[in-house]
Amino acid sequence: MSRRPDELLPLSPAMFHVLVALADGDTHGYAILKEVERLTSGKVRLSTGTLYGIIKRLLADGLVREVDAEGDERRRSYLLTPFGKAVARAEAARLEATIALARRKPLFRRS
Amino acid sequence: MSRPDPSPSPRGERFFRRLLRLFPAEFRGDFGDEMARTFRDQRDDVAARGGAGALLRLWLETVWGVLTTAPRAHWDLLRQDAGYGLRSLRRNPGFAVVAIAALAVGIGANTAIFSLVNGILLRPLPWREPERLVTLFEHAPGAPVEKFGFSAPDFGIVRESAR
């Protein structure tokens, strides 16, 4: 039974940030936290509990999978699955479409 | 899924491990060690860069994160178990009927027994100092019954003489 990526949309902002942080390849927990903070210029700071709550859901939905972290086999890293990449792209497209709708109104037009 | 971490556990990490007990055991088994490692990295990094204030902020964010995430983890697990239970019952309707009947009888019997025990043993009588209550009977030599209840005037006499 194949699932459509848009069945899981919309993603929570935190979940989308985690998927974006994983876009460059497998990453362990702390690196994900730092990458989210870097990408958002410190505006989003996930706590450890929030991060692993999200990872549990991403694993359960098949968006990421576990791999051994490079250089430390006790540590786990997380890698986007092809389905996870498709969901991340679908969410980005949904957000873009939402912004495009808003931009039609003068209030949201870039000056 | 989880692999043990042989590194020593300082006080902060022990407190963090205690915090993790707010999560369901299954969640802790899957992610507890990994969360402890991540928190340790985070704490070491913050302590090296930011000092005491940043460390305090990290602790507050971490505690708040656990307090807000743990109930969600419990709820997810409950939903997952309930979903599994419902799917199992749907697959075996005969078993479902027997299980529901057993539950109904069990709950009904428990409720009936509790009602009795509560009424007879647990709930106090609706008067002050109920342990001082006595039952009075009248006894009249030669009467066809050994004891009988008070008439209203007799009760008034007994009450007056008891003062």
Task: Give the second-level CATH assignment, the architecture of chain A.
Answer: Orthogonal Bundle
Q: Describe the largest sheet of chain A.
A: 3 strands, antiparallel
Largest sheet of chain B, in brief, is: none
Whole-Å distance between the termini of chain A?
47 Å
CATH homologous superfamily descriptor of chain A: Winged helix-like DNA-binding domain superfamily/Winged helix DNA-binding domain
Average pLDDT across residues of chain A? 92
> What is the tally of beta strands of chain A?
3
Strand content of chain A: 15-25%
Shape of chain A: globular
Sheet/helix structural class of chain A: alpha+beta
Q: Helical residue percent of chain B?
A: over 70%
Give the arrangement of secondary structure elements.
The complex is a heterodimer of chains A (111) and B (163).
Chain A: H1 13-21, E1 27-28, H2 29-39, H3 48-60, E2 64-69, E3 72-80, H4 82-103
Chain B: H1 11-20, H2 25-91, H3 93-122, H4 152-162
Helix pairs in contact in B: 1-2, 2-3
Describe the overall structure:
The complex is a heterodimer of chains A (111) and B (163). Chain A has 111 residues and is α+β, with helices and mostly antiparallel strands. Chain A has a single domain, classed as Winged helix-like DNA-binding domain superfamily/Winged helix DNA-binding domain (Arc Repressor Mutant, subunit A, Orthogonal Bundle). Chain A has helices at 13-21, 29-39, 48-60, 82-103; strands at residues 27-28, 64-69, 72-80. Chain A has a 3-stranded antiparallel sheet. The longest helix of chain A is centred in the last third of the chain and has 22 residues, at 82-103. Chain B is mainly alpha-helical and 163 residues long. Chain B has a domain at 1-90. Helices cover 72% and strands 0% of the residues of chain B. The longest helix of chain B has 67 residues, at 25-91. The radius of gyration of chain B is 33 Å and the shape is elongated. The interface between A and B is medium-sized, with 20 and 28 residues.
